[in-house]
Specification:
This protein has 175 residues and is an all-alpha fold. Helix content is 90%, strand content 0%. It is elongated, with a radius of gyration of 32 Å. The termini are far apart.
Length: 175
């Protein structure tokens, strides 16, 4: 009977040791998995941050293109649908440019944003003048106004392209 107790305590001792080693290995493996998961999440967040600014600039470019297209459409058709689209796209574009920098800062990206914002504000005034001239049936005025507006549109597109490239280079370097 004594031998049985000794055998059980040796078995319990080995079983306890093996169980504690296995538990330690499992805890260690769990810790490693949690660490790897957090590192992957951190990397994905950084990648998202790197390219989200480029997505915002692309949205701005798309909104500008839509606005220009609806002004052109309205001038050619004078339909209420085109006018409704103009007001909707104008508001959308206003909302997007409000997110751009409007202060003088010693940063090339921020200065490009400021320039785009100021030109866009002038562009919106010009589009409004063009639409109002068309509504007032002042053909000569809306033609010259549209030409000025189109020139601003081209400048803004060039600046948006520069900003997008600059942000991409900066973000890629930071990544």
């Amino acid at each position: 009977m004594n031998e049985k107790k000794e055998g059980l305590s040796v078995e319990n001792s080995i079983q306890t040791r093996l169980s504690s080693v296995m538990l330690l290995v499992l805890v260690f493996a769990l810790g490693i998995n949690i660490f790897i998961f957090s590192q992957i999440q951190n990397a994905v967040s950084r990648i998202d941050a790197v390219f989200s600014s480029n997505v915002d600039i692309n949205d701005l470019s798309d909104a500008l293109e839509q606005l220009q297209g609806t002004v052109y459409e309205y001038l050619n058709t004078k339909g209420t649908k085109a006018l409704e689209n103009y007001y909707r796209y104008e508001q959308n574009y206003k909302n997007l440019i409000e997110e751009l920098n409007d202060r003088n800062l010693d940063n090339e990206v921020k200065m490009l944003e400021k320039n785009i914002r100021r030109m866009s504000e002038s562009y919106l005034e010009q589009t409004n003048e063009t639409v109002q001239a068309k509504r007032g049936r002042n053909v000569e005025k809306y033609k010259t106004s549209y030409e000025d507006e189109n020139e601003l549109y081209e400048y803004i597109n060039v600046y948006i392209y520069k900003l997008n490239n600059l942000r991409f280079k900066t973000n890629s370097a930071n990544y």
